[in-house]
Structures
1.
Amino acid sequence: MKAPFSPYLAGIKDGLRLIIAELDKKYDYVSVLATDSTGLSARISRHSRSVSDATMTTERGIVVRVAKDGLYSEYAFNDFDPARAAEKASEIAAELDADLELLRQNGVEPYETGVLSDDPFTLFVEMETERLPETTDVKALVDDLVAISDRGCTLDERVIECIVNAQSTHVCKMFLTKNRDLSQSYVYSEGIVVPFATDGEKNTDGYDGVSGLCGPEIFDRLPDLLDKCVATAIELLGADRVEPGEYEVISSPEVTGLIAHEAFGHGVEMDMFVKNRALGKDYIDKRVGSDLVTMHEGALCATDVTSYAFDDEGVLAGDVTEIDKGILRSGICDALSALRLGVEPTGNGKRENFEHKVYTRMTNTIFDSGESTLDEMIASVKYGYLLEGMESGMEDPKHWGIQCIIKLGREIKDGVLTGRVVAPLIMTGYVPDLLGSISMLSRDREVFGNGGCGKGHKEWVKVADGGPYMKMKVRLG
Amino acid sequence: MTDRIAQRLKSSGVHAWEISDETTRGREYYFIRHRLDQNRIKDVRHIKLTVYETTDGGETIGSASAEVHLGADDAQIDRIIKDLSYRAGLVKNPYFKLNPPVVSRIEGEAPDLDGICGAFLTVFSQIPETPGEDVNSYEIFVRDVRRRYLNSNGTDVVLRYPTSMAEVIVNARSGGHEIELYRNISSGECDKKRISDTVAEAMRLGSDRLRAQPSSFSGSVPVVFSSAEARGIYEYFLDRLTPDMIFRRFSDWSLGEQICPDAVGDRVTVRTLAFLPGSSSNFAFDDQGAPVRDELLMEAGVPRFITGGRMFSYLMGIEGSFKPTNVVFEGGSKSRDEIMSGAFLEAVEFSDFQVDPITGDVFGEIRLGYMHDGKGGVTPVTGGSVSGSMNDFLKNMTMSVETISDDDMVFPRYTRFEGVTVA
């Protein structure tokens, strides 16, 4: 079935067009992004169970963007009566004028920017889904999640808790200008299983998840994750600490994705180029990795949680080759930054929600596959680790440092897994050194869309990342 | 509209309910150097409804929640209530009651947003800069928040308060090499002195980062945390003192029992305060309508009061619980010189310093540190990581007498861990 576009948004469209028409009399550029994203979230554990309509990206609201004399301003609100659209337009203009007066009184000058293009374009997209979060059988879902959680708590007496979370979001967005009319509707979903174990001295957890550009039907796959997650949590109780140092490692696809995202993806978000906050700016068309390294980024690169038709600035989704055989070719760019840099936007302008500003943000960030098998890669390691489980990471675009927290490493000695596990791990280093050391890539490739991405320590958005198994040299602690 | 929703709920027959009604009026300014990239205004209101239903003859209770969009009519509200009632009946938790009734409808005056915004604009425009050290960019967020909470027990409380945040990037450069440091300053209104001091200190550290050498040490060393980055260490204690963590056995701490009996260093004493000057968290009530007050949480490593959200507090039989807002950790026993003695790594700045409250794992990539060789030599370093476990560090953690303030928390200025893995 097609995910039906929001009747609420359809119903306020004429009112928003009136706002645009009124504001167009005063401003050089006017656009409106209206959102109505609904969801279902079920959080089930041994000790706490609840159901909610709120997920990471549910929202309903409107943000108006205007430009005048080189300055861009925005007004975000969620109380809108289409019958009073003209009044709302006046109110918006008056409040922005008052704010500009305050800024003038304080001697503030604008970072003068040209006018965004407003080429005519119309798009209406309703993407396919099997089920919708708003109409799914909640009882059946809750019963299934409870069964997973209950079973998880019985698989081993050391398991003290088993959290199962399932979230599904029906995203509807409408972007309007005088000449553009874009509407999209799609559903994405994600679920995780997280058992916690203790031996009285130490607490551990295992986790795995599912995600996709689809509806709650994806949660049917959650039971299959449980046994492995519990086994991991138990295995980690006996894990050693790694001897700090530099190692040959093979990253699982999930860790490969973390590296793509943290070590490189953030580094070429071009709003940082505008501020001279990214080393990547000086490396366009220069080598940043080995010949094996090719990386893509864009909403069209994969089908997962952030595979939209257009971004929050009305720019169509893209597919950018960021690195081509080790050479940095391009970053990704929101529309305003593109205007300032004199490049084309890439469809990566995203807001946390309508209340937040647009930044250049990632969508799907993926390393291309290679030619090796995992067995060949393991056999090639004299001493090192197979890294599994993505915990977290932090970007450092200015200095190209790396911080990735990895759940565990499986020891490899003379080309064979020994059975010894070290955990947890922090991977650090310098991005070009890491990418330059990549020597083997597997043929397969996976993409992961659980969790969220921050810009620094705020502005949370959905992203997906991934790639193949990847052999390289890194520093572990 | 909230009163209308409450009336519909009262006649609906649901077992219990809560309404959270929050209105935010805000201004935002984004600067590239000192030029305005963008200004934003927001005027939003969110009404969240939670319905509770009992099952199994009252032995269990479940909840479901949803946002009621502005403009919803009575029929739409009734449909939401009915849907939530059904969903709440699908999930079962041990029975608990919502917070007892409190009524407080006294709102503070509307914050002077123009005045607060003006103060931010002024302080940033007056930051002393040199060709070698300046401000790269900054973002200013100022909010007027009105929050109302009601529940079926009769609680109806209103709070109105300003909240602000500034995020600033500082550059330091020399000989064609440039670095940046990031700072985030949260407060109620504009804390001009804290902003000026924070940025000035960042610029001083920036010049050290410029000459920092890549960290080549690998092994086990003492680490002294000498900046607001240490906040993560103290949040670990707060997290593990909550009913949520203890009931679920993520934390094995309990009232009256020493958390680390074989500790030979300093032991933690912490109290929560309803009011802390300059804090962005000076609230009379928490978000579940519980009155906030001053309480001693831990004394010399012994938990004295476990407090937090309503559900697990009730299940643990804790009377008068609330979610702590401001917290003050007492200083330890050591002078600065005693803490900073011998050979150690002084860690000032991390990419993302993390302390996991469930596992106790500690991580951070070093953006700026100082290797002290114990003979007076101090070398700025960058790169590499610190890691380890609070289970180990608690045994001989030492803290300075001197404390520092970071918005809603006060904690020791210097904290020393022994045997930290540096890679």
2.
Amino acid sequence: MYARTDQVFVTGCAASTCCGVGVAPLFARFRRGLSSDSAPPTNPCSANRQGFRFPQITVDISQYVRITRTENELTRQLLAAVESDLAQKFQGLSASERDEMGIILGNTSGNYTPYCQFYSTGLNDGYIRVNPAHLPATLINYQAVQLSNALGIMGQSTTISSGFSAGLDAVGHAMMRLRLGKDRAMLAGGIQELTPYDHEFLQVKQLISPRGVIRPYHGTRDGTVPAEAVALLLLERQHPDDGQHCKALAEVLGWASATGGPGEDPVARAKRVIDGALRMAELEAGEVDAVFPSANGTCAGDQLEIYVLRRVFGNRLSSVAVYPIKSVVGECLAASGPLQCIAAVYAMNHGADPSPHRVKARSDALQPARRLAPCIHALVLCVGLDHSCSAMVLAKA
Amino acid sequence: MTVPDSASRIVVTGLGVVSPLGIGIERYHESLQSGQNGIQPVDVPWDTGYEVNHAGIVREFGPPCFVADNNSATGGRAHRFAQAACSMAIDQAKLTAECRRRCAVVVGTTWGEALELENNAQLTAACPDRGTDAGDVARGHPFARLSANLKAELGLEGPDFVVATTCAAGNHSISMAVDLLQTGTVDAALAVGVDPLGYLVLLGFSRLLLQAPDTCRPFDLNRNGTILAEGAGALVLERSDEAKRRNAEVLAEVAGCGLSCDAAGTFESNAEDVRSLQIAAQGAFRQAQCKPQDIDYVSAHGSATKLNDRKETYFLKSLLGQRAYHVPVSAIKSMLGHAQGAAASLEAVACVLSLQHDVLYPTMNLETPDPECDLDYVANEARQCRVNTILSNAFGMGGNNAIIIFRRWTD
């Protein structure tokens, strides 16, 4: 195998969610406690975008240096998150350090809105009415490149998709490159604009809660609440011989991923993915003390996840802390996995916050838990509604 | 020159091509070698600024269907290209059932199923309440589903991803596949680049004055842009010890991959600012454990725009020094056109074929030398020549750069 295997640490987080721009409002919401029965906060969905309602993120661009009026919504959310949470990290970086940094983002749907606008202008108004300067904003990789431009990062700038678990897979890819010593640091995560494809996928499959409430694992759960978000982790590598030089919030130990078709046994696939992540982390399931699951409140999705967790943890499941964060942030598709990682990092560094739950032994419902083991090893699990599946293992640094 | 230990060397064991110059490796090689022209007039139902539009079309799959039709088979042109290319590559590599269980798929593209996106936009504009029908939902998102559907159809069971870095996507897919192999996540990987031709890209390139009227002339004084195209290229990659264990025929080595981003505004490039290209090249050389003086052939990005060709020439001179004047450079977009996300994969396949057949493919339509592009571009005629180490450049819109070093395999 490739000779060099470095350790990979999380040294920063950035997010824009329906709780607000930055991790601060998200962490404030965590401190108020997670619930197994709540509606994600909404700047009330009075403004319909693309014909459907969802919890929106408001960015006041006058507060940010790097955002111009011409930027689209998703780019504003991304740049605002990074400027809010990571500005200090980047201020002191030298040119050579920026050369060795890369960006990798996960995104399910690309830049659907600018794409359709550009195309429709050409079709309806004629060739000469099309503004050529708008072509780059139609590209799926546009946000990653804009982030590179804003921060002066000259390593790779990439966008991937593997479906709804794309964000966690982006973090996994970043981890691989750092372990191989190919980059010094990576900004990795997920960005999600709700497009007609995403929303109608959820609607056609009857996965949206009519009541607008997420009740993970609850017997009366009736669906999820789709939302937009941006979530990034700053990962840095460190070789064991080099001595610790970065303030670490958590260590990324393992990752695995798979997608599959409707014919394949999804429980077996998810188990295989979790086993793969644990194997890379060189851990047994018995050493995991916290799970940050998808737990999105859909009937089939939660049922599948509970089956998988029971197969992985067996009778031990009721003593493992479970953190259902989508009751706070909504179902953010590609951004969900990295948001769950951010919650794991928060739990590792803030004791019992954000209020763990545990799975009841006889039913599968969640109940608030007290006196659980501190979060040392966390399993982040994305069981996507589109048959994608990704798992990551984090450890307290 | 030293090479990494055998366990971490990545090799190519299978190739597949769907291109405007034909389908299949043999036909592709013969067409490139004889300097054939894959560019032809194409019917586009709306204005692009040209009376007659030209593009590199895959004729065997029929013309692209730009006009929406509820019953059309437009959904899936990218998938059909990729599926055909991957099947060829898997057949050549003779992947066993055991290999397929631990085989990844990485697909590089610009927009995925662009024609389907466009057709949906047309149908929605005609009927705003239409929404997305159950059929569309069942097929999955036109971008995200490319790799998952390929994997299902080819019976592969490893991870799969789509990577969207425009014209550099093919090389990015190779780089990601290499990462998966080197970490031991998988034992084999399909690195694919694919894009169909859509109206939006024709419109955009024409409005940006990047599209030439009828001929792609890389490095020629009178070059005036690229000619867009479509297609797919696929490579099966494995670790060398795995390939040896299977007695697979090794076609070439992927010695190094380097990635970078210009980190400048999309329209702020200048020909002399090649620092980001040097960063990508340094990354590739570091992995390959070799130096610029080991390079004896270059597969250029060669998109035939005024700026890009000057910039690439400047970059090669900065990298190779005086040797640049003696290292041959080929730009096969002169024959294929610019196949967007598939371009780098098609060029990667050509690099491997060059090593196999000891041939340097020509840069066609190079009639009037440009004093600012004064290297040896293998003008207009293929050349028999044995080379060992090839630098393959891919530079994407937005500033994504991906450089791969291919090396003749020696055990």
3.
Amino acid sequence: MKRRVLLQGSMVYGALGVAASTGLLAPSFVLAEWPQSSFDAKELNDALNSLFGSNDYITSDKIHIKAPDIAENGAVVPVTVSTTIKNTEAMAVLVEKNPAPLTASFDLGKTAQSFISTRVKMGKTSPVLVIVKADGKLYGASKVVKVTIGGCGG
Amino acid sequence: MARKSIRIRAKAKRDTIEVKALLTHSMETGLRKNRKTGDKIPAHFIKEVNCEHNGKTVLRAKWGVAVSKNPYLSFKINGGTKGDKIKISWSDNQGKSATAEVSVK
């Protein structure tokens, strides 16, 4: 059983190695572990510092957030983020007033468009902050989504 | 359950591939309580999603508990065509994982 786990583990790293050598993944996120402390962070700045090494971002009107003005159901809030900022490496979605703001982060390969659509849980009315990392810099935009029935289940 | 845990729709539009996926997962936050026993239902959520186009990773997502139950994910790839392969894999905090692959239509 241990040998099988060891082989499976080594196969995963082998696959990542191949992906890295083809150049479609920037080295910074090839071996990136799931960022526990970023997802655990209860304060927005702590989450940003943990995930990106900085909480300093430039507000940009080149980031587009499509989300409802009023969410019918806080458990399922559709959020579509896109940006025209060039050389986007990563995008992150943070729901500022959730117990832990960091909701999702996306590392984009070179052929991926800067476009992500997903659905998130919101505990209450909150700004939804989208951070874009491009050329080593952070850009951000925010939209307030009103929530009538909270979706964290707490 | 025989139901597919990852449904993928991948369409080529000119030379862009638009992918829409629906993953089956409870995405438990760990904050909900069992109404009968009062115990907290343990957190069970997808941590990582890997998306490949013809065998090369194009998108890696890292998720926390606040992604909705039965997560929806849509993304777009430049430079693809009908017949290309799209593969999506996920792994969760309890060591479970799943993968599915489709051809672009």
